[in-house]
Amino acid sequence: MKVIALLGRRDEPTDGVADYCSFLAQALRKQDIELEIVRMPWAERGWGEAMRWLAGESSNWRADWVLLQYTALSWSRRGFSVRARDILKLLRQQGLRCAVVFHDAHPFEGTRFRDKVRQKIQNRTMLHLYRNSERSAFTVALETAEWLPRDAPHAAFIPIGANIPTSCIHKTYRSSDSPKVVAVFSVTDGEPRVQEVDDIVGAVKLVHARIGPVRLEVFGRGAENARKLLENGLSVPGIELRVRGIIPAEEITRTLAEAHVLLFVRGLTNSHRGTAIAGIACGLPVVGYGQAGADPAIDMAGVCLAPWRNPETLAESLVTVLQDENLWRQLHERSLKAHAEYFSWDAVAGRFANLLGDSSVEK
């Protein structure tokens, strides 16, 4: 089977969707599926020329499927992603079978008038893409996409894999001795940064007060921009802080493997949060915000969920996981099991093979 993954504009400084497609392509080879990655250059050439380019290129494609990779910002500079409809229409006119991978199945948040207009446009665009494609893959549980019809027979829940090397993914280097190591993979830029840093600082300080020496590893997107806030909040003897920005994928794997727990405060913990999945893939317990029962893959993993923006419960959960060795081992085993069943690239590829190859779709 030949499949083409169609991407929009590149995200900077890292492109999670491109990484996703690269890892997926490697895993699909084991399923005898060839995945070719094609990027549509609308951001560089403008929409008119890019559509003409796509019409010419796609007329020569000899693919069984085209996977349109949807995020709102892939197809619009400001999240008004209506152009994705035109792309799907053109591909269908070329006689190509189309599926959509919804990396963003929820509209952007916001309470301004502009935000509400954008949310309506995004919901209508996603519904249009779903209705006019033969298959759809969602990186979150179908029930959480409020715009999706309840009866969605051609949709499947396919969690994302971890965009980090798997060669040493289950090798653990962490020590049970002090200090305890807490990892934070990425901090949101902009207004949410202050709240996220406050939650991180409060949780780490409680660990220090209850358990003793602790090291906080902060790395990934937004980490450097949060450095001063973190340093101001954690200038306490016995708390070691190491902040790094974007680091090589192999270094991400090693850093997580040396940690005792991943602290996730960048929104709700679910199956499309790649930075949370990276911790699960490395066998880490994850402490974050969320609600049990909202995501079957996350429920299987070793995740302790606190109610949204309840930093006191979040901090207590972090302390409990680090204090209780038996609990830590149980969560560690659950994360490894969830990785094997849901988040490994072999598992992801198998679900895609089922989605594209069977007439009935297993949700």
Describe the structure concisely for a colleague:
It is built from 13 helices and twelve strands.
User: What CATH architecture label of the largest domain applies?
Assistant: 3-Layer(aba) Sandwich
Q: Sketch the topology as an H/E string, one letter per element.
A: EHEHHEHEHEEEHEHEHEHEHEHHH
Q: Look up the CATH topology of the largest domain.
A: Rossmann fold
Number of structurally distinct domains: 2
Principal-axis shape equals: globular
The whole-number mean of residue pLDDT values reads 93
Could you name the ranges where pLDDT drops below 50 across 5 or more consecutive residues? none
The Rg value, from CA coordinates, equals 21 Å
* CATH class label of the largest domain: Alpha Beta
Proportion of residues in extended strands: 15-25%
- Terminal CA distance reads 22 Å
Secondary structure tally: strands: 12
Secondary-structure content class: alpha/beta
Can you walk through the features of this model?
There is one protein chain. With 363 residues, this protein is an alpha/beta fold. It folds into two domains: 173 residues, Glycogen Phosphorylase B (Rossmann fold), CATH 3.40.50; 164 residues, Rossmann fold (3-Layer(aba) Sandwich). It contains 13 helices and twelve strands. The strands form two sheets. A six-stranded parallel beta sheet has the order 2-1-3-4-5-6, sandwiched between helices. It has a six-stranded parallel beta sheet with strand order 9-8-7-10-11-12, sandwiched between helices. Helix 1 crosses helix 13 and helix 6 crosses helix 11. It is globular, with a radius of gyration of 21 Å. The two termini are 22 Å apart. The model has no long low-confidence stretch (mean pLDDT 93).
